[in-house]
Design a protein that fits this description.
The complex is a heterodimer of chains A (355) and B (281). Chain A is α+β, with helices and mostly antiparallel strands and 355 residues long. Chain A has 14 helices and four strands. Chain A has two domains: 72 residues, no CATH class; 209 residues, no CATH class. The N terminus of chain A is likely disordered. Chain B folds into two domains: 211 residues, Rossmann fold; 49 residues, no CATH class. In chain B, the strands form three sheets. Chain B has a seven-stranded mixed β-sheet with strand order 1-9-8-5-4-2-3. A three-stranded antiparallel β-sheet of chain B has the order 7-6-10. Chain B has a two-stranded antiparallel sheet with strand order 11-12. In chain B, α1 packs across α2. Classes of the chains: A alpha+beta (355), B alpha/beta (281).
């Protein structure tokens, strides 16, 4: 009989893991990657994994990238599965991006503004020519010019400049404590705090595609990049027993404030509205896409027609998490032969009925 | 396991899940949202079932894990190992010996007892999801017990194909109130849920829902008075143990259309074969 029972699952798993470990290491004639190398030289990958993994720890993110062979979604998954086991000992106070130690700050709506434009370490104006010099990469890198201290002193948020004239909608403080998606399930209607948290953890590619779709007419909102800033902010907690705030460390964040046209409604005069993006690390593409999608999801609140995917809150929030998405898409490779057999019998019977 | 709590989850999380389970048992068939955690296994691999099992497991429990009815499929092996490693509980492949059975896609052939709990892994807890994608809308429909949409779907199937075309994940009414997904078990297994002596728990990790059927609860597969529910199985006998009443897997044996039908419940099949050998001796 040709039938071999599907035995030996245990051995197969052990063998697969051994093979994986060997492949991860690759040719042992090549030096192994160190964690500091990944942390320092693959910084954008580390940023993305921290953002989608919802855990700000460069070293662990670098470890996850190494362990996942550079598969960034797998790396984010490793971080998520780790962070969920960590105890919560405090909640931080809201971080103040207005007092960010700026490394980059650009506005597309004002030519010049207090604090000026600071390009920072951007790829924006590089020519995308492969730099064969990096093949060898032995030359010393000259230090970059530091940002003038005077520039750093006054960096008001662009929306605050606009807000003074009343042309931009005010940023309303939410009435309740922000909810936390990592502790409570998503429920609807989902308020903006929950939506922003979901977007901040969401997949960069998914948000990029959705944000792009709003620009091409699926829920357009006429955006301007009011301001994009990236830099370091301090995180403070206020332990109840102390009664005052203490600084527990720094985060690098990228913030995007989109300013969008709004025709006004019966109750609200025409004004600019806001779309907001904030992500861990230097993640400008995602912060911008997030701001577009955030604004699109405010359609119902602003009395606009909800017709496009990016405006559909349920659609966006249920599908933005790449750990959930990759799990469910990839689970199709698990055995389904019981269900498939029932479908076979079903189909045979239907065809008999018809014949 | 060093550095982790018994059965992986911390006690706060277990308490949250147990509260959800109590509510679920109190409202049979109703989906209870819960704060599903990221697990060290991917969504779709049984994270909901794993969280439920982790929350109910005690040191004295004996755990059986099956996938497609079999104890030796890779995912069943992986989940069994996970609990052997994180909880140190005894594991078994015997349905009769287990106190907790975690399953994907099957209910064991052997009747379960009052002192057993079966935990189902659920990919999509919302039975109406293929008819209505919005959860805001389906929640309203459950609230009003407005299940006309599903009846229409079944009616259209009969009109078009002469039979209901759902062969697995066949919707059931629990305790005459809530429409429920039985998880993607074959419709063949649905009747086993009705008045089952064991407690049935369902965990959907990615969708963050828990639901339950208490012991001895009415579970009815949807049908019509003039078109009663019929369980489907391949009409063959098991090629290994000869069973004609068990659910069969179809195994391709050659390139010429050769097929072998064998029990999907491997424990059931090997127990029957062991019985024949004893009888022969």
């Amino acid at each position: 009989m040709a039938y071999v029972a599907v035995k030996g699952g245990e051995q197969a798993i052990d063998n697969a893991h051994a093979w994986l470990a060997e492949e991860r290491r690759g040719d042992t004639g090549t030096p192994a990657l160190s964690i500091p190398q990944i942390e320092e030289q693959l910084g954008r990958a580390v940023d993305r994994v921290m953002a989608e993994g919802s855990l700000y720890d460069r070293e662990l993110a670098a470890l996850a990238i190494k362990q996942a062979q550079g598969d960034l979604i797998e790396a984010a998954f490793l971080l998520r599965a780790y962070r969920t086991t960590l105890p919560r000992f405090a909640h931080s106070k809201p971080v103040e991006t207005a007092t960010m130690r700026i490394e980059r700050r650009v506005s597309a709506v004002f030519k010049d503004l207090p604090g000026g434009q600071v390009l920072g370490p951007t790829y924006d104006y590089t020519h995308r020519l492969l730099d064969f010099g990096l093949m060898e990469d032995t030359a010393a890198v000259p230090p970059a010019e530091p940002i003038a201290a005077a520039v750093l002193e006054a960096m008001p948020l662009v929306p605050d400049i606009l807000g003074r004239e009343g042309l931009l909608e005010p940023d309303v403080r939410s009435e309740h404590e922000p909810r936390d998606l990592t502790r409570e399930p998503l429920t609807f209607p989902a308020e903006r705090d929950v939506r922003l948290q979901a977007l901040a953890r969401g997949d960069e590619g998914f948000l990029l595609g959705l944000g792009y779709s709003t620009q091409r007419g699926y829920g357009g909102s006429h955006p301007f990049a009011g301001e994009i800033r990236m830099g370091e902010v301090s995180v403070e907690i206020e332990p109840a027993e102390l009664g005052f705030a203490i600084d527990i460390g720094d985060l690098v964040l990228t913030e995007c404030q989109m300013v969008n046209q709004f025709k006004g409604s019966k109750t609200v005069p025409p004004q600019f509205t806001r779309g907001y993006g904030l992500v861990f690390g230097f993640g400008e593409r995602k912060a911008m896409a997030m701001a577009l999608v955030d604004r699109a999801m405010r359609a119902e609140e602003l009395g606009e027609d909800v017709t496009a995917p990016a405006q559909n809150v349920e659609f966006v929030l249920y599908h933005s998490d790449n750990i959930e998405a990759t799990g469910f898409v990839e689970h199709l490779k698990l055995p389904h032969y019981v269900d498939f057999q029932s479908e076979l019998e079903n189909l045979r019977r239907i065809r008999e009925n018809a014949g | 396991m060093k550095g982790y709590n018994f059965a992986y989850l911390d006690d706060q999380t277990k308490r949250m899940i147990r509260r959800g389970l109590l509510k679920a048992v109190a409202i049979p068939g109703h989906q209870v949202p819960f704060g599903s955690r990221e697990m060290p296994l991917p969504y779709g691999w049984g994270t909901g079932g794993i969280q439920v099992t982790a929350s109910i497991l005690g040191a004295g429990d004996v755990l059986k894990v099956i996938d497609q009815g079999a104890d030796d499929t890779t995912n069943a092996v992986s989940i069994r190992r996970f609990f052997a490693r994180t909880a140190g509980v005894a594991t078994t492949t015997s349905t009769a010996e287990a106190t907790v059975i975690q399953t994907r896609h099957r209910i064991p052939e052997k009747q379960l007892r009052e002192d057993q709990i079966i935990v189902y892994q659920v990919p999509q807890p919302e039975p109406l999801s293929r008819l209505e994608p919005s959860r805001v809308e389906t929640k309203r429909m459950h609230g009003l017990a407005d299940y006309g949409l599903m009846h229409v779907k079944l009616y259209e199937d009969i009109a078009r194909y002469g039979q209901i075309s759902i062969s697995y994940d066949y919707p059931v009414m629990v305790n005459e109130r809530y429409l429920m997904s039985p998880s993607p078990i074959p419709a063949f297994d649905n009747p086993k849920m009705d008045m089952m002596p064991a407690l049935q728990l369902f965990g959907a990790g990615r969708e963050k829902r828990i639901y339950a059927i208490p012991p001895w609860t009415r579970v009815k597969s949807l049908d019509f008075a003039d078109f009663p529910f019929r369980a489907i199985r391949a009409p063959q006998a098991c090629g290994l143990c000869g069973a004609t009443d068990s659910y069969l897997d179809e195994v391709v044996t050659d390139n010429h259309g050769g097929r072998l039908f064998v029990c999907s419940d491997t424990d059931h099949c090997s127990e029957r074969r062991a019985g024949f050998e004893e009888a022969a001796e």
